[in-house]
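Record type: monomer structure entry
Structure origin: computed from sequence
Chain ID: A
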Amino acid sequence: MSLKPFKKSDLEKGWMKKRRDRKIRIQPEYHLIVTEGTKTEPKYFQAIRDIINSQFRDKIQLDIFGEGDNTLSLFEKAQARVYQNPNGYKHVWVVYDTDDFPIEHINRTAKLCEQSSTSDTQYHAIWSNQCIELWYLLHFSFFHVDIHRSEYWPKLTAWLTNIGAGDYTKGREDMYGVLLPYMETAIANAKRLDQLNVGKTPSSAAPGTKVYELIEILKPYLVENTAFRMKG
């Protein structure tokens, strides 16, 4: 059967015209945050997720999972969630503490994030040496002494008490809100530590934290939300 060209009269019919009235929906940018802990880190990042997902749902969406696994297992769970999500994730943030885990696992996880990144999905190793409480502490002062993670807690209590925010306990649900006014200080201090740790592996960068990299990506939405609340 030969294919005949469309008649001019047919081209004027509604079913032949391009649908110019149909808007193209732009999909928001999806982010996945998986954390080693099931309380402290999830509570902090869930507060961020709730702000962003409620105010900027058409631009960006955050999924957060406190997996209760460490280093290599955490990366594997993150990767599995990427494969299972039909929307796809533009950024995958693997948040973990170095604690007392094997050195090779700590460094290998960071390497896997780098090697597994593509133009579609970028993996980020958001480690803290030794723990995320270092990130909290950097909101109040620059700290570059390598001490055991348990020593961060009384220091945090002292700072929090000084600003009238009570004692520090793991899993506090209001830490994001309490620390928010000091976010720029924390980012600057974390970057300063990063400069001191240039060339070091995550396991040897003590103290050090990459949490600021995640916060800097999300900060435009958080700052806009803060301005909106102050105006209201």
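Annotation 1: The chain has one domain: 27-231.
Annotation 2: The chain has a mean pLDDT of 87.
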